[in-house]
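Exercise 3.2. Students should predict the tertiary structure of the chain below and write it as structure tokens, then compare their answer with the key that follows.

Predict this chain's 3D structure.
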Amino acid sequence: MAKNRVLGKGLSALIQNASVSSESSAREIREIPVDHLAFNPNQPRKVFNKDKLDELSISVKDVGVLQPVLVRELRSGESAPPVQSGGPPPGFVVVAGERRVRAAAQAGLASVPAITCTYEETEALRIALLENIQRENLGPMEEATAFQGLLAAYGATQEELADMLGKNRSTVANTLRLLGLEEEIRDLINDGTLTRGHAKALLSVTAGPERVRLARLCRSRGLSVREVERRAQGAVAARKRARRKKPSAGGGTGETTEVRALRERAEAHFGSPVVIDRDAAGKGRISVSFYDDDDLLRLLSMMGVQVDID
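Answer key:
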């Protein structure tokens, strides 16, 4: 499909006939002063690696900006954060190429080569996303937020979005699922503590304290993706056992609404899967799952057991 082929072909693949010799003034490459530019508030990338930006700035200072950036004119009454403060009101907003503009400003360049277009906001967001995908991967949460923005802007399905971006539908679906993670976990992904692989493993754990606890354990102990997957699988298995409705050895019945409510409270308290097994007479046992020795000691301490053994 034609839309899939734009990836990896540079800005000219996104803006047809974009060249110095273009007869169309809208497609003409021209120098625009840096202080006339504003940043796109809908830019999907929110975090820029300082070391890589410094490297790009050094390169730009030596050879200039080789690939033109894509800009559009600011509409009447529209505002956007200017690239440089203290200058005249910006007349253009950067649609694609913000890293190059930042590097140029850092290097002290007065202007950058640019192609001026008149895309609507939704199209501008799509182009910015495609440009970032082909040049340097967005962070997992940045990508998920950008995908969500595209779905809302276009009213597209996940399958249509996958086709637009040249990705598998499952990849798009799994990326969007990251937005359902707890805020604390999203923060750990944003700062690089957890990778995309860690996040994918955590998604298989039931939302709530149990998942947050596993993410914290990953942070404190530097767990590998494979270890998180193993622990997540253990949590899922324990959850299935807790929900299995079969008679107990004493002839008990399945989990009642009241018992389920108590079990869920216990799980929230301990941050671990809990199984309550009772017979018809009300007798039974409570099981709390743990993942390793440290987790066992944590649970015993919560139960008031002295764990310091001399």
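Discussion points: The radius of gyration is 27 Å. Residues 24 and 174 are 41 Å apart (CA to CA).
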